[in-house]
Amino acid sequence: MRHILATIILAVCLGQSAAAQDLQPILQTHAAEIADPSRGSVAAPLDAMIASGLPQVPTFLERWTDKGVWQRDADGVFFYGAASGNDLTLTDIDTGEETTVPKAGHTELRPNGGVRRVIGTALVQFQLTDPDIARRLSAIDSLARRPDAEQLAPLLGSIEGEPDPALKARKIQLANFLSASFAPDPADRIAAIDSLAQDTTIEARAVLNQILTTRSEVATTAPTGNVARILTVGDGLTKAEAYDRLIAADLAPPAIPAPAIRDALAANIVDGRVGDVPLAQLGNAAARERAYATLAAAGTVPPRLTDQGQADAIAAHTFAEVYVEDDPAITDAARAALTSVETRVAAERFADLALDALSLASIYFLAAIGLAITFGVMGVINMAHGEFIMMGAYTGYVIQQVVPDYTLSLIVALPVAFAVTFAAGVTMERLVIRHLYHRPLETLLATFGISIALQQLAKNIFGTQARPLTSPGWLDGALVLSDVVQISYIRIAIFVLALLFLGLILFILKRTRLGLEVRAVTQNPGMAASMGIDPDRINMLTFGLGSGIAGIAGVAIGLYAKVTSEMGADYIVQSFMTVVVGGVGNVWGTLAGATLIGFLQKGIEFLNPSNTLAAQTYMVLFIILFIQFRPKGIVAQNGRAAAD
Question: Which of 108, 116, 271, 627 has the fewest CB atoms within 10 Å, i.e. is most exposed?
Fold first, then answer.
């Protein structure tokens, strides 16, 4: 293929223009090679076609590769053809004129896979400068899948005239990959390898690893060539592996397995003895070894390898990993570049883990912020808090059935979910909770029963199958920062929503009359009542506010997770842990608790990725130990909650 590439470059340099010429005469000159090509013979017609510079050549190569070329048996003329039953529609290769003829008397060209790959390589070189950007993209993808040294020069030649900036950048990147592997000048290869030190893509790492490919060598003398490392038993090599390498290199006899020894003894029984050992004594392992040694000494069977003989054979040889690349300067550059890339990849993986942890923390914060108000401020253990999250998610689903526009339905669902769960929370507080204040055990049992009832109600209405809460199209996909770091737009939206909620809750508690009254009742309900504040009314509104926020959180979580009647149970435990660890009754504590639990869970999952359940168990154990040392949480609360 090297002469094909040279012909292409020559044709480009001479600026040949042959638009008025026909391709058919060239094809007829090489009719035999085209009709029955092989990997060796196909080079001649490709040379001739490429050297002609005719615009028909790329189309012919494409149709030839796709088995769309036919030859008329009578005179050997080639056409583009499409068969339909017994008829064949022929298209003239030069004029494009179509005729329909009987299929009999025509032969379809069917180049094999190897020939098609050769044709494809030549075709890619045309497509790199094709006016159609789709063809250029296809050529680049083909080069990336099957890189070849002969593709480097055409690729470099196509970069300067590339009008699309993104495709030009991709061509430059791919040219660096090919240059690192195939550039004829070692200095050019080293320069390309150095440029890959900043590239953390999988492709760049694959190129560097390919350059650093090694082969195993074993010899009685010091290894020659570009040695990667010397292996010794106990340092990168076991005794068994070392001896296996000696056997593979025909430098030591293979060990004789026990069944072969037994068969050899059985085959050499003479007059009731094997060697000089009577059959009656062969039940003893030492006797069997003595009998086999006698046979080996007589040359009847191969000698058995002893442990000492194996050790001596290993000690007499040198084991090494030798680079396939002969130039040490190139492998040194590749090793340095790969070290730099791996350092960057490790940093990016840490950043990706941090983003995942931050995203999980924002989900836990959304799920727990309502509970922080009801449990933290009011001291009510509401086991039905997860069901308010579920009610919010189902509200979003119902809204989407009425409003098909996903963006508009999401905008409508947020306030409606708040209203529905606020009303449900107020109803629950009026009918149940207000009769159970300062009775935590009864409150826990009552709200647990309510949670079961709400789950069953949801099953009766919506069924047991998960319902889709579809996100708008602008939330599809992910923000890709690199091959390693990426985060979905839905998680970004949940993070932003968590920040908005943080600001909203702080504004309500710090800047509104309701917030002032809530803080007053929290710190001293008796004094607040003497100042004209109705603690009963504040408790009702506070519980309703916490429940409403849980409903909005349900809409957000439903976009990310499955919407089922049991979805609240997936978040109730984490919500309580978030509130308790952060500090009961404190918004900033809830934020701190969500952050700690989110990062802790992701960290444990990173260390133990194969067992998510174990990771959650370790997290719970850590939380228990944490509470033992800091029972009031990260941000301790003052007032009634602290006293409780």
Answer: 271
